[in-house]
Design goal:
Blueprint (H helix, E strand, L loop, with lengths): L2 E6 L2 E6 L3 H13 L10 E4 L3 E7 L22 H10 L8 H11 L6 E5 L2 E7 L4 H23 L5 H8 L4 H13 L3 E4 L6 E4 L2
Antiparallel strand pairs: 1-2, 3-4, 4-6, 5-6, 7-8
């Protein structure tokens, strides 16, 4: 996991992008509450801005999503497996895993985990923590891409150099980066050869 670096006086403070204890609880939860009869694997999906855990096996009645964020009874799908983890010390108490995930994110000023029942299973999503500098960078990038889109709508034949001159506060390499980003997001596409072609803004 990458760490966000900040300073308090001369003290260097490192904060992980995701809450470590909450991630641990999500892994334990997926293993213990998985429906092993289907043979479906636990999935862990890592994106640029989030981590998603999914295990086969929906919530056992009478549990629902809202109950998971507060005190609730424990409903064990795999009793023997749950007891093994409990006796090993990996689990401290029954029915507290999801609450610990929520508490850990709140105490660490992270976005709260998102619980949902999906495709016959249970899913937990942790969104990446973004510091103030990253938020400023994101806003600046969004403004730049919006300006580029507006310029290309008015004149689809603009080159990278011409765009950089019009934007004034960005280099030609910066224009290239933003154009590639817009292409990946399928907001624009280039028609024709590199020289003599034109840009099409996709609505």
């Amino acid at each position: 996991l990458r760490a966000l670096v900040s300073y308090k006086g001369i003290e260097r403070i490192e904060t992980l992008e995701y809450p470590e204890n909450a991630l641990r609880e999500a892994i334990l939860n997926a293993i213990i509450h998985r429906n092993y009869s289907t043979g479906t694997e636990i999935t862990l999906s890592v994106f640029d801005n989030k981590i998603v855990f999914w295990n086969d096996g929906s919530l056992l009645e009478p549990l629902n999503i809202e109950m998971l964020k507060k005190e609730h009874p424990s409903r064990k799908r795999n009793v023997l497996l749950a007891n093994i983890f409990f006796r090993s010390g990996a689990i401290e108490a029954w029915g507290r895993g999801t609450r610990m995930m929520v508490d850990d994110t709140i105490n660490g000023n992270y976005p709260e985990p998102i619980f949902r029942e999906y495709a016959g299973g249970f899913e937990v999503t942790f969104e990446r923590k973004i510091d103030a500098d990253q938020k400023t960078t994101q806003k600046t990038t969004q403004k730049t891409t919006q300006k580029i889109l507006a310029l290309l709508k008015d004149n689809p034949k603009l080159s990278r150099k011409e765009l950089a001159e019009l934007l004034d506060d960005i280099t030609e390499d910066g224009v290239k980066y933003n154009l590639e980003k817009l292409i990946r997001e399928q907001l624009i596409k280039h028609i024709g050869p590199n020289k003599g072609g034109y840009w099409e803004v996709i609505k």
